[in-house]
Design a protein that fits this description.
Distance between the termini: 21 Å
Number of domains: 1
Largest sheet: none
Number of helices: 3
Order of helices and strands: HHH
Radius of gyration: 17 Å
Number of strands: 0
Oligomer: single chain
Structural class: mainly alpha
Helix content: over 70%
């Protein structure tokens, strides 16, 4: 069950990273970067959320489930 959740989180993380990269190339992000020196908050949250979801998803996917013997 953990592997299914991990794969779903990994996929969502990759999608969020792609949306974040696309948002960083938008006009509003370029204007924000021109005046403030940093991209928009939406871009940052998409990228950070995507990286976090991808890391957690990869950890759940690639670590084996441990069964405790009774």
């Amino acid at each position: 069950m953990n592997k299914i959740i991990g794969l779903a989180l990994l996929a969502v993380g990759i999608v969020l990273i792609i949306y974040g990269i696309n948002a960083s190339n938008s006009v509003s992000s370029d204007l924000s970067r021109t005046f403030t020196g940093s991209p928009t908050n939406k871009t940052l949250w998409l990228l950070l959320g995507g990286v976090a979801a991808a890391i957690v998803g990869a950890a759940l996917t690639f670590t084996g489930s441990r069964k405790i013997d009774k």
